[in-house]
Amino acid sequence: MTVASASGNDTAENRPVPEGHVRLTIDGIEVDAPKGELVIRTAERLGIVVPRFCDHPLLDPAGACRQCLVEIEVNGKPMPKPAASCTMAVADGMVVRTQQTSAVADKAQQGVMELLLINHPLDCPICDKGGECPLQNQALKHGRADSRFVDKKRTFAKPVSISSQILLDRERCVLCQRCTRFSKQIAGDPFIELLERGALQQIGTGEQQPFQSYFSGNTIQICPVGALTSAAYRFRSRPFDLVSTPGVCEHCSAGCSQRTDWRRGKVMRRLAGDDPEVNEEWNCDKGRFAFRYATAADRFTRPLVRDRDSGRLRETSWTEALRVAADGLLSARDSGGVGVLPGGRLTREDAYAYGKFARVALRTNDVDHRARPHSTEELDFLGAAVVGTGPDAGVTYAGIESAPTVLCVAFEPEEESPIVFLRLRKAARNEGTRIHHLGQWGSPGVEKTTEIADAGSPIHSGELLRCLPGEEAAVLSELPEEVERELREPGSVLLLGERCAQIPGLYSAAMRVAERTGASPAWIPRRAGERGAVEAGTLPTLLPNGRPVSDSVVRADVERQWGMDEGGIPGLPGKELEGILAATESGELSGLLVGGVDPDDLPDPEQAGRALRAADFVVSLELRPSGVTERADVVLPVAPTVEKSGTFLNWEGRAREFEITIEGTGALPDCRVLDTLAVEMDVDLFTQTPAAVAGELARLGPNPGARPKPPDVPAARPGSPGEGRALLATWRHLLDNGSLQAEEPNLAGTARPPVARISAGTARRLGLAADQAVRVSTAHGELTLESEVVEMPDDVVWLPGNSGSARPNRVLGAGHGSVVDIAAGPVSPSRTAPSGADEVAGAENPAGAADREGTVSALAHAHRANGNGPEHGGVNGSGPAGAGRADTDGGGA
Amino acid sequence: MSEANAHEVEGRAATNPLTPVLTRRWLSPESWSLRTYEELEGYTALRTALAAHPDQLTELVKAAGLRGRGGAGFPSGVKWGFMPKDRSKPHYLVINADEGEPGTCKDVPLMMADPHSLIEGCVIAAYAMRANHCMIYVRGEALHCIRRLHHAVREAYSAGYLGENILDSGFDLDVVVHAGAGAYICGEETALLDSLEGKRGQPRLKPPFPAQAGLYSCPTTVNNVETIASVPYVVNGGADWFRSMGREKSPGPKIFSLSGHVERPGQYEAPLGTTLRELLELAGGMKDGIPLKFWTPGGSSTPLFTADHLDVPLDFEGATEAGSMLGTTALMIFNETVSVPWAVMKWTQFYEHESCGKCTPCREGCFWMAQVLERMVEGRGTEEDIDTLLDVCDNVLGRSFCALGDGAVSPITSGIKYFREEFRALCESNRGQDTTEASESALAGVAR
């Protein structure tokens, strides 16, 4: 931006206007602004702040509040009335007079402010927004000292729950429509809308239709008054009593910048940080609201060792715990060896400590952070195409926005990486990006990225390429010609989700598509620590910074830098997670060192349980009780994200560093605990602090050797599942049983209800009535869920991965692409009209009333456990399996 | 009412400055039927129009100087000319028949008495603007009128005046009659478009203007009923004939809707520029001879006039020069029995009820001003209230999102301008008096 005083030197007169710019004058200051820029922004760049409420730089202009009125002259002619600077684009020769130089603008602004206040309650002293309220601040700056309004204010009942989390105070609302516009334009969840008119106009929801959105918390943050508050934070604290610390979200791999507000050692709330490169100004509700796991009552504060006599864990000193752990690990190492399972939620620094601990202290490559279904093909893909990439060369958020075409492969953006989802919507809505999906059914996330509601008719922005679960690789190998052609346009992107690992040949097929079309592949794992861990060296094939363990030269270099003897690191790749567990179960491995891992997340939870029981010695670094600590011989408490520093690498490979938010709790990061444990084992890791680790990682430098080759696994095509059977499709909801969502009942209330989805054809074949549940079973167990018919291939059933009782991994021992038995279940009580219930149930279930009673009550029970009942409090951690722990992947956060 | 008085119109046509053009058929038997319409030159203009080039029609309307009859008076031909010539997107013609302005009662009688003139106008205008879809957005409360329109549209379809290949011209047009849901704001053209799209009716940000992105983001022209119904006459009569009526900048005939304290309220079609004095003469003078006190030239959104304005020429320029607006030529005429603050209060209550709520000044301003006026009329006002009212009006006028807010302050500012003493008297009565005597105060300023 160039600024020159109009009255100042005359060389400014001769200065050419840059290409694509116009020259205008604001309050006597000459300024060049890009064409199309709104006057309010140009003014702001000059330091002239025009007051506003409805204006938001990331939302379409509305011009509704009229607070930003200024006087404008175009072509030497004054406009007949003050104009809203938030809707007026700059023009050449325009003369703008804001409240600073125009009495008319100043009076107009004071007038609007007075009007806004006549119906606004004077409850600032008890309002959550008081102290950080744009209305309060601007009223003090641009308002009248006294009100002339002596009549009756409009009143409403308040607050109104528009979801289990969001509360609406209609009296405080200034009807700026930021919340409704956000929900419509950004999130694509238009579940709040203006109702009524005139002074009775208000924000509201449809009947029986709560504000169900994964992004609802953003409306609180952009509300310029205290009209929208969260049940979690309402009346909890005053903004001026809080300390604000910048942070990074620990939930998914989006890498959102956040602001954590805390006091007296306790986090009170989290807000979206402003980071245009990553999350812009948004957060998902999980990132915003799910943080109380760190202060759960059952959090470990002291080390625990298993008492030999009672078999129970008892609290002990760090000295004893570390000695017991070191002795146990040393003897396990020297008998059969120890496998290391760090889990996918660590910072890069903590992950590095696990990887180094495995190689240096345990002398093994048996380390794998992938606490989820995984494959060797994925391992090869990560080594060949992911490690070492970063935002400078790889796919980024900005890259998505500018891409002509994006193909989401086995990736459910809204559920798995909500900020990527928002960016996909923005790309489709503003840039005309085509968004295609390869999946089974038109989930809300698919719909909202392929059909964008806008002014006029919706924009059709892409297609869902429907396929059977497991068939993705085959379909990707033979893409429709048009999609293939679109992917050839430079800048196109392939987004690969972690579900790819469950589909043999899919990573290979994706690499071939990338090769063929030039589209850039990007891997978007679900968990925040996965991308960093790939870099930090917690895979059985990779040392830090993508150095292949099987490359002797590279290995020797690492050994030298780590001060090890030559040959200290085994030259063969280690076992993957499933292999480690199998080896432990068979007694080949003697011990396990486990970080944040929930056995129920693993590909085979039963095998994990057997392995934990079979191991001679198990050390768990944990935050809260889990399926691992139940079996562990030593439990060492570690710090949650908010009590440590470190770096998450987001899916782009972008380093997201953060400092300690809550100091002085005494909690130690994993890297520090491992460092001390190593010392007990007479090994130096030099990972005392995350900063020390970061330094060492930088000194190690990038992989000097060759990149491993990409995988080449043939694409498979699933066979027909057979009579009474179906192929299982499954992925997780954003809000589910995950242990990092513990202690957040209000958040849990906004989760999507778990239902089984089938096609109309499948429903017909099963003889399923509209209100009838579906029973899915395997040799392991069975699940009964309410059904919903959607457009999807026949003989497929979709289940949520970890919602309520729907935990196919745990209950059915089945994953995406597995064959399951499927049958019509009982008639659902909640969906059936009372009068028709008997008739329908009787028709479908001639077995008799008693039988029906039983199934109905069981269903009702399941329904409650799913956390759908508004009265239901702590959903997470209520059952034995849900009693997960934090800082771990627990229950599949 | 309208038909009875149209009779008056007919009877006096020979001796008075009436120009029955649009109202010409109103008294014929079953004037709304296709048969009557065809007997009286109906659909003859359409044949002429379809033989012409679309752009010739736009030029003709421009040359005739036809101006929008919905209130703003924008030259219709110029508006049509904003429509793109290419057909890359569908074009729409939307008829604003959401007649809701207090006092305005011209479009509903027109559609009741002569719906085919509107339909013929629609076909010609749609042809000129290369639109194959036309929507008539009718005020939902006017159910009888909606039924009559539906009937007329059906008749026109079966006679081949609508549908595919109209009169073998190769031109197709579908007309949809759409009932509004009872919101004054939906008379604002962009709110009307949102409402037509099935959305909440609130005005849109302009630009883009409807000619660029209107209904379903496609090129759209929104015209008033009376404007479009005038088009067949312009086509048949020609620009010069049309310009033989009215004044240079405001040519043509206009339906003046007289209501209130006159002997014979109703529709009087006269050239633009006719004065109230002339119109009153046609309407038999003030009712019972009680003198005129104040009147609106074009509905409640146009500032009041008084007896001093009897000779103001009622055309777009004349009304503006005299400090008001022509609006919809809905002349509400009040005699000396009416309290100005009371009438202003009633109008303000209307605007408070109808403000759509989108923008702050109109939403909150109307809410506030209505309360102040109610308080004043109850005798609990103060002189400060008068200044506050004027200042709030100043903060609403020209500060609102659309013209609704501007209209809302018109009765207040003009009422205080001409009748400040009446408002002050209400405050006087408040001084040291029992303020519970509301009934007395409500009559302040009323001649007894």
UniProtKB/TrEMBL annotation, chain A:
The keyword 4Fe-4S applies. GO terms for cellular component: membrane. Gene3D superfamilies: 3.10.20.740, 3.30.70.20, 3.40.50.740, ADC-like domains, Dimethylsulfoxide Reductase, domain 2. Signal peptide: none annotated. It is an enzyme of class 7 (translocase). InterPro entries: 2Fe-2S_ferredoxin-like_sf, 2Fe-2S_ferredoxin-type, Asp_de-COase-like_dom_sf, Mopterin_OxRdtase, Mopterin_OxRdtase_4Fe-4S_dom, NADH_UbQ_OxRdtase_75kDa_su_CS, NADH_UbQ_OxRdtase_ferredoxin, NADH_UbQ_OxRdtase_Gsu. GO terms for molecular function: 2 iron, 2 sulfur cluster binding; 4 iron, 4 sulfur cluster binding; metal ion binding; NADH dehydrogenase (ubiquinone) activity; NADH dehydrogenase activity; quinone binding. It comes from the Bacteria. It catalyses: a quinone + NADH + 5 H(+)(in) = a quinol + NAD(+) + 4 H(+)(out). Residues 701-724, 825-893 are annotated as: Disordered. One of its GO terms (biological process) is ATP synthesis coupled electron transport. Residues 870-882 have a biased composition (Gly residues). Residues 20-102 form the 2Fe-2S ferredoxin-type domain. Pfam families: Fer2_4, Fer4_Nqo3, Molybdop_Fe4S4, Molybdopterin, NADH-G_4Fe-4S_3. Binds 1 [2Fe-2S] cluster per subunit. Its cofactor is [4Fe-4S] cluster; [2Fe-2S] cluster. Keywords: 2Fe-2S, 4Fe-4S, Iron, Iron-sulfur, Metal-binding, NAD, Quinone, Translocase. CDD domains: fer2 (cd00207), MopB_CT_NDH-1_NuoG2-N7 (cd02788). Residues 104-143 form the 4Fe-4S His(Cys)3-ligated-type domain. Residues 242-298 form the 4Fe-4S Mo/W bis-MGD-type domain. Its EC number is 7.1.1.-. PROSITE patterns: 2FE2S_FER_2 (PS51085), 4FE4S_HC3 (PS51839), 4FE4S_MOW_BIS_MGD (PS51669), COMPLEX1_75K_1 (PS00641), COMPLEX1_75K_2 (PS00642), COMPLEX1_75K_3 (PS00643). PANTHER family: NADH-QUINONE OXIDOREDUCTASE SUBUNIT G (PTHR43105:SF12), RESPIRATORY NITRATE REDUCTASE (PTHR43105). NDH-1 shuttles electrons from NADH, via FMN and iron-sulfur (Fe-S) centers, to quinones in the respiratory chain. Couples the redox reaction to proton translocation (for every two electrons transferred, four hydrogen ions are translocated across the cytoplasmic membrane), and thus conserves the redox energy in a proton gradient. Belongs to the complex I 75 kDa subunit family. This is NADH-quinone oxidoreductase.
UniProtKB/TrEMBL annotation, chain B:
It holds the Pfam family Complex1_51K. It comes from the Bacteria. Keywords: 4Fe-4S, Flavoprotein, FMN, Iron, Iron-sulfur, Metal-binding, NAD, Quinone, Translocase. InterPro entries: ComplexI_51kDa_subunit, NADH-UbQ_OxRdtase_51kDa_CS, NADH-UbQ_OxRdtase_suF, Nuo51_FMN-bd, Nuo51_FMN-bd_sf, Nuop51_4Fe4S-bd, Nuop51_4Fe4S-bd_sf, Soluble_ligand-bd. It catalyses: a quinone + NADH + 5 H(+)(in) = a quinol + NAD(+) + 4 H(+)(out). GO terms for biological process: cellular respiration. One of its GO terms (molecular function) is NAD binding. Residues 341-386 form the NADH-ubiquinone oxidoreductase 51kDa subunit iron-sulphur binding domain. Its cofactor is [4Fe-4S] cluster; FMN. NDH-1 shuttles electrons from NADH, via FMN and iron-sulfur (Fe-S) centers, to quinones in the respiratory chain. Belongs to the complex I 51 kDa subunit family. This is NADH-quinone oxidoreductase subunit F. It comes from Actinopolyspora biskrensis.
